[in-house]
């Protein structure tokens, strides 16, 4: 579960609307992100 703070005027839409569109990353870029998170 993730807790995402919400604020008045943030759009009030589903989380994806608040966070923006998913970035188009290559498998190598996704692996680098996963490694950074694991550290």
From TrEMBL:
SUPFAM superfamilies associated with the record: HIT-like
Domain HIT span(s) in chain numbering: 1-13
Positions of region (Disordered): 1-27
Matching PROSITE patterns: HIT_2
Top-level taxon of origin: Archaea
GO MF annotation, one: catalytic activity
Name of the protein this chain belongs to: Histidine triad (HIT) protein
């Amino acid at each position: 579960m993730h807790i995402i703070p919400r604020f008045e005027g943030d759009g009030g839409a589903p989380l994806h609307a608040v966070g923006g569109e998913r970035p188009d990353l290559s498998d190598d870029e996704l692996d680098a992100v996963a490694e950074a998170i694991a550290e």
